[in-house]
Specification:
binds fe (iii) ion; TIM Barrel; binds N-(iminomethyl)-L-glutamic acid; 432 residues; 2 domains; Urease, subunit C, domain 1; single chain; eight-stranded mixed beta sheet; alpha/beta; eight-stranded parallel beta sheet
Length: 432
């Protein structure tokens, strides 16, 4: 036990640890265990959890150590910081007009065809000065941190030429250095074919022969992702790009079976990808393939919601068949402009019929495994990063059921308080 405890949190009515009985992402019945400790406490030293559990046990454990600072959660709910394992958070500006156009009946692909959608953001990102792109993205991450997100994956893919892709990746790396969040970088040059290429194969060669080696040489990404979709990159092309990515040392991710069931999930499982993402149109064979593999299904309920669609990924079926499921926001300027993990969880519960416990595990521990951070984030246990959030609610199920209001009052990242909002006695219902 260290001699000094930098931070002691006590008075957690429910300490939702998201701990599991085994290592690895939670599946099946384990996914419904939130690992709750009533009247819980967390002792932090050097940015890491030294003890998390029942208050009496933690107090006994730290013995006579000096405590520099104490937070009393006052009976509120304390959770691990959210891990958002799929975002496109580096971009120019939101495309709110397309949101309205979709409500009026225009399709996602129609919008793309008339020059909107991803390609519009690509035009803007290419023109945007790197400093400005960093600053606008930094502000978005600050907002995410306020709502309790402490680890985030960010994909490139709005550059689609070597200079602009590298610019995005440098911005992503800088966000990791200059914000409190942990940032995981994914290279997604294969997000779309850029407008200047008529020939699909020619762009594929640029991604494989020029971009992948440059990104690897500069060590600007940990993962590679491909949008495997009709009219974008087919299964064979996706395989070729992922193969090249693997040889260059990247972990693999796939945007799979989003609009068309293409066999993207099967490909991800076969290639040992860390995750297959979207999956709204996954086939029964795809579900089986994921269940039998270590590939995590990253589900994006906020996207279906913002697109005004009813096509939610078949989460229940996946969970019942043993797929390891995670939840992310897919935060991007068009198809999912919400950066809120609590909102994503709320939609997962009401529309995909995940229980609150399943959704919370999916957004913390399983999400951490989906970005290769399972050993250090996503649950409150000894040795992991001290990333946690105090929510001004009495029961963890209020997080999805009362979504829409900002309930996070204290956010701690690496043991440092990064958000502290007074819980006005007159506003808090906890303990009333
Ligand atoms: O994950 N599916 C492909 N790409 C993004 C869309 C990004 C955008 O609309 O700008 C997604 O939803
Ligand atoms: Fe995406």
């Amino acid at each position: 036990m260290p001699q000094t405890i930098d931070l002691l949190l006590c008075g957690a009515g429910q300490l939702v640890t998201c701990r599991g009985s085994e290592k690895g992402p939670k599946r099946g019945r384990n996914l419904s265990d939130p690992g709750i400790v009533f009247d819980g406490a967390i002792a932090v030293s050097g940015g890491a959890v030294v003890l998390a559990g029942a208050r009496a046990k933690v107090e006994r454990g730290i013995g006579g150590a000096d405590v520099s600072r104490t937070i009393d959660a006052g009976g509120r709910v304390v959770l691990p910081g959210w891990v958002d394992p799929h975002t496109h958070a580096v971009f120019s500006r939101y495309r709110a007009d397309e949101y309205e156009a979709r409500i009026r009946g225009e399709g996602y692909l129609e919008i793309e065809r008339r020059g909107g959608g991803i390609r519009r953001t690509v035009r803007e990102v290419r023109e945007m000065d790197e400093e400005r792109l960093f600053e606008v993205s930094r502000r978005r991450l600050a907002k995410m941190l306020e709502s309790g997100t402490t680890t985030i994956e960010i994909k490139s893919g709005y550059g689609l030429d070597i200079e602009a892709e590298l610019k995005m990746l440098r911005v992503i790396a800088r966000l990791g250095r200059e914000t409190p969040l942990d940032v995981v970088a994914t290279f997604m040059g294969a997000h779309q074919r850029p407008p200047e290429f008529d020939d699909e194969k020619a762009y594929l060669r640029v991604v494989i022969d020029e971009m992948i080696p440059a990104v690897a040489r500069k060590k600007l990404a940990e993962f590679i992702d491909v949008f495997c979709e009709k009219g974008v990159f087919g299964v064979e092309e996706t395989r070729e790009i992922l193969e090249a990515g693997r040889s260059a040392g990247f972990g693999l991710k796939v945007h799979a079976d989003e609009i068309t069931p293409m066999g993207g999930a099967e490909l991800a499982a076969r290639m040992g990808a860390i995750s297959a993402e979207h999956l709204t149109k996954i086939s029964p064979a795809g579900i089986r393939a994921l269940a039998e593999s270590d590939t995590i299904a990253v589900l994006l309920p906020s996207t279906t919601f913002a697109l005004g669609s009813r096509d939610f990924a078949p989460a229940r079926e996946m969970i019942e068949r043993g797929v390891a499921v995670a939840i992310a926001t897919d935060f991007n300027p068009g198809s999912s402009p919400s950066c809120s993990m609590p909102l994503a969880i709320a939609i997962a519960c009401s529309q995909m019929r995940m229980t609150p416990a399943e959704a919370i595990n999916a957004a913390t521990i399983n999400a951490a495994y989906a970005v290769g951070r399972g050993a250090e984030a996503g649950s409150l246990e000894k040795g992991k990063k001290a990333d946690f959030v105090v929510y001004d609610v009495e029961d963890y199920r209020e997080i999805p059921s009362r979504a829409g209001a900002d309930h996070a009052i204290t956010v701690v990242k690496n043991g440092a308080i990064v958000r502290e909002r007074p819980a006005f006695e007159t506003a808090s219902e906890v303990g009333f």
